[in-house]
Structure formats: C-alpha cells, structure tokens
Write a structure and sequence with these properties.
The chain is mainly β and 71 residues long. The chain has one helix at residues 8-11; strands at residues 15-20, 25-33, 39-48, 51-61, 66-70.
Length: 71
C-alpha cells in the first residue's frame, strides 16, 4: 500500500495521531507546525500500546521524532 504525503495545512485545528520514534502515540489537536515538521499539539493524550499514559495541555513534537501522522 502506497502512503500519500500529508498536507499539514489541511490538518490545522483537527485532531491527529502522531507515532514517534520511541513507539508512543500522541493524539491531539494540531495547532501549529513549521517547515521542519515540528508540531504543536493541544489537549494531548499520550498512549503506550492501548493504555493512556499521560495527558498534556500543550506538547511540542520535534519533526525528527515523527514517524507517522494519521487522522
């Protein structure tokens, strides 16, 4: 299955799920991003497996740590 590039502009102010290098999943509202794919997420739920391991009001995810972004 071929993956399509994501247009982050279209995802602003929507809830996304981000998988990061260490295996965690972060689900939150995409508030801002930059050309390096650094993401600012609001109202984040952090998952390890299927279990919620944390909740965060704001979180910055460095672009180099992003593996997958899904809606």
């Amino acid at each position: 299955m071929e993956e399509k590039p994501i247009d982050l502009e279209k995802l602003l102010k929507t809830t996304i799920t981000v998988r990061v290098r260490d295996g965690r999943r972060l689900k939150g509202l995409l508030s801002q991003y930059d050309e390096y794919m650094n993401l600012l997420l609001e109202n984040v739920e952090e998952y390890s497996g299927e279990e919620i391991t944390g909740r965060h009001k704001l979180m910055v995810v460095k672009g180099g740590n992003v593996q997958v972004i899904s809606t």
